[in-house]
Amino acid sequence: MEEQRIAKAHKLVVNNRKTSMVTGVLDVLSFDLNEILLETEQGMLMVKGTDLHVNRISVEKGEVDLSGNIDSIAYSSSTPAEKAGENFLSRLFR
Question: Which own/partner pairs from 51-54 qualify as long-range (CB within 8 Å, at least 24 positions apart)?
């Protein structure tokens, strides 16, 4: 059987650079006081700052609430799984 994934709507709301609410989250890959890395429907999302905290995670709903001093937010279109797959396939067909 082939698993079909239903796309969740992705939304990013930042309030006064202190709190943030993110929807459309597929996975929380890593987090510490200075950096949070999320896999979202729109690609990888990296939040950098100081004193960052993940206040609430609901992976079933795809929602994450963050707080702290947010300095930057950056998206990347490639995911670690895609990169690993490309490397595997490129090695396989050499």
Answer: 54/28
